[in-house]
Amino acid sequence: MKFKSLGLVGVGMVAGVAISLQFSAFAQRTGSPLPLDELRQLADVYGIIKTDYVEPVQDKKLLEDAISGMVSSLDPHSVYLDKEAYRELKENVAGKFVGLGIEVAAEDGYVKIVSPIEDSPAYRAGVKAGDLITRIDSTPIKGMSLDDAIKRMRGEPGTKVTLTIARKGEDKPWVTTLAREEIHVQSVKAKFVEPGYAWVRITQFQEQTVEDMAKKVQDLYAQNPAIKGLVLDLRNDPGGLLPGAIGVSAAFIPKDEPVVSTRGQLADQNQVFYARKEFYVGRSGGDPLAKIPAQLKTVPMVVLVNTGSASASEIVAGALQDYKRAIIMGSQTFGKGSVQTLRPLGPDTAVKLTTARYYTPKNRSIQARGIVPDLMVDETPDGDGLNALRVREVDLDKHLSNVVTPETAKAKRDELEESQLAKAVERARKPIEFGSKDDFQLAQALNHFKGLPVQLSKAEPRPAQPEPDPKAKPDTKPAEIKAPAKK
């Protein structure tokens, strides 16, 4: 008992010093007093674990787990990054990492596939968006944090990992063994799919995306200056860096027009981003869009999207839709309209925190709704079964609601009969090769250019929160900054 008391006193002293040092800074930033009772309770729990738990626990583990739990409880995209996770994040931004090639999110204690990365081990094995990972090797996923699951799937190149995958509509789980490899994400692909009709695909928005796209477009116009239609393919694009989305949008819309705005609690999160060089390359670098052909601003366009299109790809689709610059075709997008800001905690760790919401030029919130296409077109002539299996932002636990109303749309999900779902799964087994002659949605985009009939989907957009007043003016000024409420 004496040992326990001394432990608690020691923890209390540490907490007291920390409170004293941080009180003025915290109060200055938030205008709110520190919750001293709750902090004392946290210190008490810390001390009890240190003295009473069945086996010793390292201080570092306890504190990092406390931070991780505090941040991850906010929403699906806020996360504490330890040394390894921070390094992996920087690798992803650079466009390469070692792993299986999947974008994942937490759902009901498991790990759901948001989107497989093209040409990755997972993609080649037939892993699909909407699949649920239940085991990694022999370890059950249930109750495991998303960070821990990702760490288990990462590793050295050439090493293998076995995934047990549950797929809706199937009775038995699917087990597949994948070899980890360095994933090089090719950000931009481009080609002529028919004489006079160009296809530009962006798989992820990275540091070099704007520059790569500009070069690909210049090459296309060098091959044929008389382009009659351009398809911008953003299907299964999970997003990435905001400057990339701004630069891609700026290539097609008038200069200096708003591309996207953000609104959050802090002043630096209330911003409007314009189709200007400084917003996608900074003030010191050269403008990669300076030499793109002028015809790119007026060429007829179709933007292809699906449920795997998220974040930065939704910003591009929303801007081009608002300015009526392109026809948006495909399926309703993922609906990730929140801003994540990296706050370093030191040289090796950081917090990735949701700090704002994204809004299109016409004040439409993307969060938990996504972009609804102008023309709803299924992925195959027989239906859009694969998209019916995919998880969207509104389906994620603790997702940030659309600012229009606090209600979620989770209870309003589309339902398919089991027989229809089983057929959809069977059709979806072989990955669709985007840009190929068998790409049904691309064929419908070409039909649109040529004035031919387009086979539309019979499905309605998934319900979501109501949109803002359509008469609202474009958001050309930062939103009003309000002080946080005092508690």
Summarize the biggest pleated sheet: 6 strands, antiparallel
| CATH structural architecture of the largest domain | Alpha-Beta Complex
CATH fourth-tier homologous superfamily of the largest domain: 2-enoyl-CoA Hydratase, Chain A, domain 1
Helix and strand content put the structural class at alpha+beta
What does this structure look like?
Residues 468-480 have a biased composition (Basic and acidic residues). This is S41 family peptidase. Keywords: Hydrolase, Protease, Serine protease. One of its GO terms (cellular component) is outer membrane-bounded periplasmic space. GO terms for molecular function: endopeptidase activity; serine-type peptidase activity. This protein is an alpha+beta fold. The protein has three domains: 2-57, no CATH class; 96-184, PDZ domain (Pdz3 Domain, Roll), CATH 2.30.42; 188-450, 2-enoyl-CoA Hydratase, Chain A, domain 1. Helix content is 31%, strand content 21%. It has 13 helices and 19 strands. The strands form four sheets. Strands 3, 4, 5, 6, 7 and 8 form a six-stranded antiparallel β-sheet that branches. The chain has a six-stranded mixed β-sheet with strand order 10-11-12-15-16-19, with helices on both faces. Strand 3 and strand 4 (110-116) form a beta hairpin. It is globular and about 75 Å long. It starts with a helix and ends in a 37-residue tail after the last helix.
